[in-house]
Amino acid sequence: MKGAKGETKAQLQRELSALRRRVARMERPARARKGAGQGKAKAERDLRERVKELTCLYGLQRLGKRCGNSLDRLLQGIAELLPPSWQYPEVACARVILNGKRYATAGLRRTRWKQAADIKLDGGKVGAVEVYYRRKMPDSDEGPFLKEERTLIDAIAERTGCILEHLRAEEALRKSENMLRLVLDTIPAFVFWKDRDSVYLGCNRNFSQAIGLGEPENVVGKTDYDIFPDKELAEFYRGWDRRVMEADTPVLHLIEKSYRAPSAGDLWAETNKVPLHDEEGNVTGILGTYEDITDRKRAEEEIRRANRELQVEHTALEEANTALRTVLSRIEDEKAAIREDILANVDKVLMPILHAMEAEAPPEQKGYVSLLRRNLEEMTSPFVGRLTKAHLSLTPAETQVCNMIRSGLTSKEIAQLRHVSPVTVSGQRERIRRKLGIANKKVNLVTYLHAFESGQDRLGTGGQGSALRT
Questions:
Q1: Sequence spans of domains, the chain
Q2: Domain 381-453, CATH number (from 1.10.3720.10, 1.20.1510.10, 1.10.10.10, 1.20.1290.10)
Q3: What is the pTM of this model?
Q4: Contact between 370 and 376 (Cβ < 8 Å)
Q5: Per-10-residue mean pLDDT for the chain, 470 residues long?
Q6: CA pair distance 313, 136, nearest whole angstrom
């Protein structure tokens, strides 16, 4: 659009120069001829009209620059430009219409003496430029209007459409840039781009604030030497820039110690740098992004420290377990030695005494001595312990009855020794069978208990005594 404006301006300047040369030629001494004075007057009038037209077009061009993105100011300014540019400005008024909205000069009065042109955008009508005379003026090429005024109003309408298109494109570009800026400033990453000489062309707000420069525009035009006080760090960054641009190859996932404002402390970053190209594929700079992985690095270091501590604790625990196993083994050895001593004392001291007492005791007391001897033998055997562990539901009395049954005592003998009735002993036997899981089965209780003593938990149905139930 700028090229079109320049071409129009040059064309208008050429026309103005041609008119001036024409007047100059008419002012030179010439042969007397009839009507020379009238021709000069007409040329001067035409020149004045052309000057007004050029002034209007130049004013329109300046108006577009001065009003910027204010559409209302632009259209109101166009309306104000029109009346002075017409043949009879003292009776002229104008208005511009765009999408139903009107911008008019003071004292606008719509009359039948009207000249108008459509404003078009994308091939469709979106408005109009209108000029009115408040009263009747002498007829000319188009009613009271000149043909040059028709050309002018058409040109103004056309240029207004071009300006609107330009403003729309600028608005779309501005929205696109704002969206891009919003995206860059929102993503949780640090973004920057540089030219071929590693001069910063731009960045997002995360990056500019991380290096302590506030807004992105404060970074533009600077180099790493200007930003980072550590010159070795600056040269490190520039060195990677050169490698990427010279090799025309991206560098991805580079873990490096980066820089941020001194008050923020050190920063670990995962950096990516890719080359930028022009339309012909030539490298023109680099685009860089990096992600703050400081927390991740700290977490990894914390995990490594915790693992080292766990390893130390694991080693200490294994050593403690080894020592504990040694102690437990020693305790088991001591328990076994104590058991052997007890068994030896029972066999060598107590059992001979009980055998002598059993031989010399009166008949009515022999049963008690024999029971005492058998119970002592059982105490030194694993039967009672195994029975108690296997059947925790047995009461102490039931366990004692099981031992008497296994020793061959009848229910009557057990009743006499325990000072209870035989019926009570029969009830205890039934409860014992139920708890041992052999109730209502053809299994002899004495045989079952002997089998249990030998380490068997179950009896078959065909063994000796299996059919007996006692």
A1: 2-170, 187-292, 381-453
A2: 1.10.10.10
A3: 0.47
A4: no
A5: 54 67 58 50 65 77 76 89 90 94 92 94 92 93 90 89 88 89 88 95 92 92 92 90 95 75 65 94 94 83 89 90 91 84 72 75 78 72 58 76 83 84 89 86 84 59 40
A6: 109
Non-local (6+) Cβ contacts of 137 within 8 A are 87, 88, 91, 113, 144
Evaluate whether 116 touches 152 at the Cβ level (below 8 Å). Answer: no
Strand-by-strand arrangement of the 251-258 sheet: 200-203, 190-195, 283-292, 267-277, 251-258
* Strand 124-133 to 251-258 pairing: unpaired
Which fold would CATH assign to domain 187-292?
Beta-Lactamase (3.30.450)
The C-alpha atoms of residue 242 and residue 285 are separated, in whole angstroms, by 9
Sheet containing strand 92-98, edge to edge, reads: 101-104, 92-98, 124-133, 114-121
DSSP labels, 295-320: HHHHHHHHHHHHHHHHHHHHHHHHHH
Positive or negative CA dihedral for 379, 385, 391, 392? positive
Residues in the chain: 470
Cβ proximity of 40 and 26 under 8 Å? yes
One of 3.40.109.10, 2.60.40.10, 3.40.50.10070, 3.30.450.40 is the CATH number of 2-170, namely 3.30.450.40
